[in-house]
Amino acid sequence: MNHQSSLQRLVAVAALVLIVALPLTPPVAAQASSPPLITSVTADYTASPPTLTIKGTVLGSPGTTTVTLDQLGNLTLRSVTSTQVVANLPTNPAVPPGSYLLTLTSGSKPNQFDEFWLTLGTQGPQGLTGATGAVGPQGPAGPQGLTGATGATGPACTSGDFINCYTGPAGTVGVGICRAGTRTCGPSGTWGICVGVVLPQPEIANGIDDDCDGVIDNGVAINACSPTNPCTNPPPSTCAGNILTTYPNPGLCSPADGYSGQFACVYPGISTPVDSCPP
User: How far from chain centre, in Å, is Cα 4?
Assistant: First the structure.
């Protein structure tokens, strides 16, 4: 029992020593005063403006780190981390080629800086264009654009083309004398006038449907001695005793009331007195 009590007291003393020793470890804040260490500096003349990229350890933080380049003074810093600092190179005037001493300060204490000699040359020629990359997938369709302005009016027709034309009343083309004409497209791409069209004409006693209504010589008083009268064409013809002499034709000889007992030529449906017409 005495041996076990002695062991318990020894363990308790060791634990006390460990607890007392812990505060002796240097605080984190004390480690921040370590000097920076620059491991590499790279110039990039493709950036605008050109940059210096400084890599290393304990390089500081924004607001505490400064970078100077010999007599050029402090450089403008783009970004600052504990392992990388990016600074702009002056452009007006540009930094001439040569060797320069770069100094990086990471704090206010005397030992919080490091120096690095670097040589800056002239910018080399632009490299060759790289190969074209693979075509990416097609993107989604964009919204429909605005409607464009109306274009100029094109030609009405092609030169040499032709079409039928007719300006008479409906239902008269192809009846009696009425015929459609044609319009031909000219060199300027426009239709010409209607050529060859035959339109309805006033009806005359000629055995033809002049007004294209489907009836020949309708409504026309026929002169018995007119050369165009089918009852006496060509003269002389006589109509006596209900017999038409000299030439056959579609007319008929019949008694005509109102003509003092004379006979008349009836064509068609219109009676006209007929005597012996002079040659």
Answer: 98
Return the ∠ at Cα 120 (arms to 82 and 55), rounded to 5°.
15
Rg of the chain's alpha carbons, rounded to an integer? 61
Per the CB < 8 A criterion, the answer to whether 49 and 42 are in contact is no
**Where are the extended beta strands (E) located within 121-246?**
162-165, 181-184, 239-240, 243-244
Structural domain contains residue 148? no
Residue with tokens 């363990």: 11
pLDDT at 161 over 90: yes
Give pTM, 2 decimals.
0.36
Do 163 and 100 fall within a single domain?
Answer: no
Are residue 107 and residue 37 in the same domain, yes or no?
yes
End-to-end CA distance of the chain: 182
Split at pLDDT 50, 70, 90, the class of 91 is confident
Whether residues 237 and 214 share a domain: the answer is no
| 112 & 188 share domain | no
Please indicate, yes or no, whether residues 54 and 114 belong to a single structural domain of this protein. Answer: yes
Decide if 20 is inside a domain.
no
Question: Which strand (E) or helix (H) includes residue 20?
Answer: helix 2-21
99: which residues sit within 8 A by CB, 6+ positions away? 117, 118, 119, 120
φ and ψ at 236, to 5 degrees? -85, 145
pLDDT, tens digit, for every residue of 175-218? 999 999 999 999 988 999 999 999 999 887 677 889 999 988 77
Give the chain's domain count. Answer: 3
Cβ burial 82-102 (10 Å sphere, 16+ → b, else e): eeebbbbbeeeeebeeeebeb
Closest CA to 182 of 202, 160, 201, 200: 160
Specify if 144 maps to a domain: no
